[in-house]
Amino acid sequence: MRFVAALGLTALAVGCASLPEVHPWFAPAGDAKAPAMVGSRGPISPQRSQAILARIQARGGGADVLDRHLAIEEEVAGQPLALGNVATLLYDGPAFYNSMFDAIGKAQDHVNIEFYIIEDDEVGSKFSELLIGKAAAGVSVNLMYDSVGSSKTPAEFFKRLRDGGVKVLEYNPVNPLKARGAWRLNNRNHRKVVLVDGGVGYTGGINISDVYSSGSSPGRRPAGGPALSGGSTPFGSTGSAGTSSASASSPAGSRVGSAPDDRPAVGWRDTNVRIEGPAVAQLQQMFLETWKKQGGEALDERNWFPDVPRAGNHPVRIVASGPGDAMPAIYVATLSAIAHAEKSVRITMAYFVPDAQTIDALKGAAARGVDVALVLPSYTDFWAVFHAGRSHYAELLAAGVKIYERQDALLHAKTIVVDGVWSTVGSSNMDWRSFLHNEELNAVILGRGFGDQMDTMFGRDVRRSLRIEPEAWARRPLDVRMKELAARVWEYWL
Predict the structure, then answer these.
(1) Separation CA 104–CA 188 (nearest Å)
(2) Rounded to whole angstroms, what are the CA distances from 219 to 216, 262, 266, 267, 392?
(3) Which of 54, 343, 426, 468 has a CA 20 to 30 Å removed from the CA of 247?
(4) How far apart are CA 51 and CA 288, in angstroms?
(5) Pairing between strand 110-115 and 140-146?
(6) Three-state DSSP class for 266?
(7) Which fold has domain 85-211+270-293?
(8) Which of 44-58, 60-74, 246-260 bottoms out in mean pLDDT, i.e. has the lowest?
(9) What is the SS3 assignment for 77-111?
């Protein structure tokens, strides 16, 4: 369920962007000097960095880990921190679909939606019928889908929505004759966003498709879905992620990378977050801006930005990146959080093809004693991404980074929690495509309560994973290494 830009020929046609030099400006946490920082417009001077920490210390005699991440996040993101939200983790597709369908069903004014993939299957049918029903009731319903991600969905599916009163916008059409402005085949909208009446919002990694409908519970298999691939050699053992909340007693499988044919069931493991409160206005603003930039038809006048009261105690910031951004905010925010980690970095990632700065940030955190652990797929719907990511394992393992591979589900989640206080859930993978070529959107939630939930969720994934052992990995066979080498050549485009 990924897009590759026709690799060689398309690469020549669209040219290459590059990630900004970010990591050298970050100083390790605990440095006696003020840490260097990077903001949404570029590097922040040492003097300004010092002033930021001084403001923290003035609050109460010392900067604890949460205050430190709050201040750094403020400088990096270029978006204000919205206080007073409720952030609810939604583990797997069924939890998301139940919550989303319920919220849309209660909509009174408008529903704005953005998905990479919308399929014409059982989930898609229920989704479309609900939207048509709300439009018939006078609710403004506006839907944006990606032309590549939804390329297999029949045109009739979207025609039914239009005929039913839903305004539908195809993001960056593949057909150049339908292009609005410059044609950029390689630039895609990978976001997954649902907004209801300006007060409830969703984001994460889950699309509209039956493959998510069963969740990742053992013994349940989703209908349909793409062919899966992976390795087949044992490289791991049981182990622990380093904390009581992320320990492993026994893995769900005994072989890393085995294809799912020899398993009783394979579900899709993913995460979304439901947000209620003032932060939804940031999601709304980004949707409306993207709709306008894409040349969508004029929207009805609605109460896009209602006066939303404080609903809880979660500080939330919405961080978005898009093609052409000189300083991709999600990339910078992620590097910043890792570079300033003091205790732990927990990453659960569907597509992990890190650039040099990301590798340096992870290795640097491990070198200063931070417990760095990754949960990655053991098989995937896209072999090249799978093997390109694995080509970086040896370097990370040598630096002390723990790597686990999820055994009993196809991992599609994109979540990170740092020091138990800085958490992000969104659409962005840790790869070049997400940081450079796609429209992506993540919610950053700050605080220990939500961070504890994220750590617990990470531990649940570890318990169903197999730890990659450095010694066993070093003995992997030649054919596995050759696949890694072949995929590594194309990692910029994956």
Answers:
(1) 26
(2) 9, 13, 8, 9, 32
(3) 426
(4) 35
(5) parallel
(6) coil
(7) Endonuclease; Chain A (3.30.870)
(8) 246-260
(9) HCCCCEEEEEEEEEECHHHHHHHHHHHHHCCCCEE
